[in-house]
Amino acid sequence: xxxxxxxxxxxxxxxxxxxxxxxxxxxxxxxxxxxxxxxxxxxxxxxxxxxxxxxxxxxxxxxxxxxxxxxxxxxxxxxxxxxxxxxxxxxxxxxxxxxxxxxxxxxxxxxxxxxxxxxxxxxxxxxxxxxxxxxxxxxxxxxxxxxxxxxxxxxxxxxxxxxxxxxxxxxxxxxxxxxxxxxxxxxxxxxxxxxxxxxxxxxxxxxxxxxxxxxxxxxxxxxxxxxxxxxxxxxxxxxxxxxxxxxxxxxxxxxxxxxxxxxxxxxxxxxxxxxxxxxxxxxxxxxxxxxxxxxxxxxxxxxxxxxxxxxxxxxxxxxxxxxxxxxxxxxxxxxxxxxxxxxxxxxxxxxxxxxxxxxxxxxxxxxxxxxxxxxxxxxxxxxxxxxxxxxxxxxxxxxxxxxxxxxxxxxxxxxxxxxxxxxxxxxxxxxxxxxxxxxxxxxxxxxxxxxxx
Length: 453
Ligand code: TRP
Prior knowledge:
Layout lengths: L9 H12 L2 H13 L3 H29 L5 H6 L7 H32 L8 H13 L3 H18 L2 H28 L10 H9 L8 H14 L6 H6 L8 H29 L8 H14 L3 H34 L4 H21 L8 E2 L2 E2 H28 L2 H8 L10 H23 L4
Antiparallel strand pairs: 1-2
The structure holds tryptophan.
Tryptophan binds next to helix 1, helix 2, helix 10 and helix 14.
């Protein structure tokens, strides 16, 4: 093998993969889903599904990268020359590119809000004023574009330094930092005094965790399954790319379990930071951007020490987004470097330029260009819809069919168990899950997401 840039330590790969996995999905989507789909009961369903479907897919993606040792498309070509399995990589890479286009817009919002928090601009504003502030910002013709480009520039800067000196260094620093920030926010949330007439912090915990089995139905199960893919960043070329930088003796099953546990921990801890604070101040939980960009600034405006906790929260959000955008840029750069023989710095700039073009359009589609719609959605929502429902799903489907049915079981066994020295006991279970259970689950999610039932 040529001297390929790669992770220097086993933790480096874990930190980078957790960095990709942990993002807005963990901080506002997951806590809200748990709260509304049955609390502790949903958590148990999610744990089962992520163990039997999400984690085996995560393992599969890492192993593909390590077996192919190339970018997300060419690893398939190395493993199965003359075959069409590499289309999985094509869908994954395209998805990464398009996801990046709209993710970068939201990442820009987190940066703007970090500056607003630092400038103490939430204090003294009513909920309506904060609502208007958010709408005013995201519909503004150039401000959100400026912040997305700034975010993209930071991402490009990190990625241009390479895997070891850029991605690994930044991820191993930021992931522990994210935990520290979230622990501080959790302590604050759980020790808040209850405002007159509000239910108090404990009601927030009970919103999050109290099991309600009556809410577990096909809808909540499907939501759990879909989210397990999204939150682990599978289907978007990230894990095969990172897997190609992984050490040959790293234990893939245990690494995957660690990634899943860190991802889950951050999501649960985010919920503990968010809901008790909201209930202490009598605010109703909302979902989506409204929760993070309107309700929480309100909470910070009234909380003792709210200035510092507001800054910390938006710092957390921006850093969580940064480790995800790094992974999204890296997959495109890896492809350009590997397949087109481009120099890394040049590839980073070229990829960033392409993403910037999509981000500008995605950003404008929230304001000036909101009248342009595809399938009744503005461009921003369309990008989200098409990648989540088609691009990533197809990529994952082809990949599990490939490993389960189209590739040598012995070679897969050897790589997954490091030539029979690690985690040999779980291989049969893993193989069964990706051959039968994962494809069926993916088809069900797909049919549901296109509205067939
Ligand atoms: N996992 C990220 C989150 O929870 C979102 C995401 C999905 C993602 N697919 C991705 C991030 C691919 C980077 C790359 O927010």
